[in-house]
TrEMBL record:
This is PCI domain-containing protein. The keyword Signal does not apply. PANTHER family: 26S PROTESOME SUBUNIT 6, COP9 SIGNALOSOME COMPLEX SUBUNIT 1. One of its GO terms (cellular component) is COP9 signalosome. Residues 139-154 have a biased composition (Low complexity).
Amino acid sequence: MFQSLFQAYEQISSTSDASLPNMMDLGELDTKWADEVLAKNQADRTKLEVELKTYSNNMIKESIRMAHRDLGDFYRATGDFGTSLKHYTKSREFCTTSQHVLDMCMSILELLIEQRNYAHLTTYVFKADAALDAATAANNASGPTAPVPTVTTGAKKKSVERDNVQAKLDLATALSHLGQGSYEKAAQAFLKVGAPKDLGDWIGKLISPADIAIYGTLCALATFQRSAVKSRILENSLFGVYIEQEPYVRELIESYMNSNFKNVLELLERYSTRHYADIHLSPHVGELTNSIRNWAVVLYFQPFATIKLDRMSAAFGWTIEEVEQQVVNLIQSGLIQGRVDSQNKILQAKKTDYRAELFARAIKAGTEMQATNRKLLLRMRLQQADLIIKPPKGSNHPGNVVDFFTGD
């Protein structure tokens, strides 16, 4: 990795007009340490492969499963994700209980999250969910065989373990939706994630509570109605624990709810570097920011029949030309029902003729009722004429008449 970085830096240095410092001045490869690590990795790999071969010859299923698991952990730690995934999936053939399958799925989920392989996350979430249900059912079916206090303690422990696994599955689902651009589903999934303690070792290893707060909030602001933001985020005490880990997130939500959209946009710009540096969020920052900006303009204009563009310019911190372009784009996309007076710089809401709309709905309802009555009359005439297609003998068909008149 260091050598690849060194080569990339040298290539940029040779093609860039700017004067960059020498790579050797920034850092030098500790060859002694690197050789020691490579030798240790080689020894560990040889040991694990010998163990797997021995267990395979002896046909000990549990030992073979554990050997594949250990090799998967080893290759994952050394960065060979493809080989790691191969050993994890191979261990499935030697799983003898639902708990073994669940452990295998959780290991693969961690690997897929590190790889940012969002498309396959959902598959293993479903498998893990099924294994979790099967493992829980097996534990319940085994029945209590110990004194009552011991049984109660064991039941609580199993309940906690189930909550921990479920929280991790919810998080994996949320990351899958985020990675594939389904922001509304991602927001709903992030809001379902359990308390930070339920995520166990995933906190700090795969994600931080602050990350969950940012992902969930940005996805919600980009897709939720304002009432949903209030009820599902501000009034959500569980998600509030995550928000407290990143103070500017609460300020962002409160500014949005108070229609202080200029501050909302300033916060998004101020922390854009942090967002773009995030491995899961960076590909979606631009689209999420645009969605939040669009919703902000729509919400600001809703109470008005007409409004001057210079007033909107002051509210959003944009120039009048930027406001006009933004509004025109929203009108063209159908998010704002209105028109722009470019000469006087005024945005006017489209006047709706509610009387005409009411008549149109009434005529449509009458037409649908007429068509329904016509079908019923034709059905009655068929029954009166005894034109009935009876089901064959032994058939479980519940009806006596086949309705041919599905059209108008």
